[in-house]
């Protein structure tokens, strides 16, 4: 538990490393949407952990030989101070590298413990800081030339090329993540190596010792950083500094991966030594600086259009400022931890000689061995089953989703069809009602014509009867009177012209209900009175009614009065109001 | 790998699309010639085929768009590629519309202009025919796009000159024509010439795209 508390500063450093440096590997790919973030994060995490566990030892040994921090509280303080330096400098937008901070912090610790700094190792480290970006630049330039030549010669179709590039980005990214884990795990966990548990886990296919377990923990912290925080950084970096063409992105990632790999591979170094060549210094280098070097390398090939001297200057400044700041901070912090919290920050043993890689391995050999072959097999089997189930479920889900989509589409289609049919039906209904209205009007007209004909007939009969009657009258005076009556009758009839009849027919059609109600409520109204009522309902004035009905305004007034009587209206009641509200 | 399947599909679509544009240009040329020499039946058949090709080009363009976006192929280049397809589609659209104008308006064209109008059509169509290999080269060999494009510019310039000459001749040397007929002829000269302008616009788009792709 205490170990975990002390480790926390290292884990924090690991988290920030994951958050920031994963963008160097997958930034361009994710920023340009060639690869989705989730995929990139999963690949980066897996390979960072693998690199850390299986190839992280070399660089950790170098850091140990610079100053083997041999007390947990010391390791904690060194790691914390490096993390704080990185954090502060990042906040003030000074490009900073974890590697340089941790080296400065270790030197601070050595000075505090009164141990001599191994200048040989220090020179080796600092020279690597310079040669890392330079090597990156050279690799990038070389690889870029190769790739360009290859693409020009092969003339691959751009769309097919896109598919190849995607796959290459994933492969190069995986390699980059592996190298990052291998090279930079020492920054995260290097100072805690001496506190590694003395265990030895045997998984059958491979074995893990205490140091590797420690690195596994650090790797997981980096992975956590990648998952929780690096997406934003990837988008920022991918659309900013690393906004490269996909081809250039592959070159940058690959050259970065190569540089980090070279500076962390002990087997490569051993191979070179066996060939009689000088060994490669296994030193944690800053991936960001290598990336900047690589981008400049590509820029050089393309004709040095985009080299920013400012970026170079900032990197060089980082080589000096970061270690100084971290070392100074560590020195002060160690003083506090030792004198205020009373915790031992170094063991006090004199360490003249740096720890060799084999010393750590020797420790591991003496450790208790825990056999984990069976659990490992079981865990793998369980994992395989889980993955299988997951795949089957996903397949199912995808199929259901497709089916759903199809159904949804069909449904949409039917809905559209239904709406269309509905609209057609409404249109037909509308047309029907229009037609029936027309039909009704016509029917009314015919009825009116028929009625008209019969009333004409009646009138003519009455005229004939009158004439017969007049013929029998002997008195001249009476004859004249009767002839006048007859002439008046005929004139009155003439006033009801066809147009008026037409008007009444139309009005009656519109106010069909009204006439019905009127007839039901007051069955003894004459036709003339009904017409008057209809005209009143239409809000005509007495004068207008008079002219419409072919009578004098006086007669219209009288007709109104008679209607009032027949409708049984009292003194205060308005005739118009009554009729309009019937 | 689904990725490769989709890539192969979109390559096929784009190839088909370019073929259609090429055929459309030939049909336009034939159509104008048939109109000028009074082969009404052949003209109508050219028009029919061109119209169906145009529809097909639209469908393919939409399919390609869909594929590139839904499968998120080439996130950095697809905008450019779709713009190129748009420009090429515009050419066949114009060809169809313009040939339809012949059918609808039935312009009166004096026989002495036939020769020149045929030549103008050939120049315009040559501009289109030269832009298509350049478009194909963009996908496989962007370095060679530029050297293929110079022909487009040449044909466009020649077409411009010839169209100018025709219009000048119509307005200055043909007093027997009514003003309305002169206007009509001017419009139809423009209808033919405008195809070379569309080809030139495509060439401009292509040359910038090629520079972007040259690494």
UniProtKB/TrEMBL annotation, chain B:
InterPro entries: DUF47, PhoU-like_sf, Put_Phosphate_transp_reg. Pfam families: PhoU_div. It comes from the Bacteria. Signal peptide: none annotated. Belongs to the UPF0111 family. This is Uncharacterized conserved protein YkaA, distantly related to PhoU, UPF0111/DUF47 family. It comes from Lentimicrobium saccharophilum.
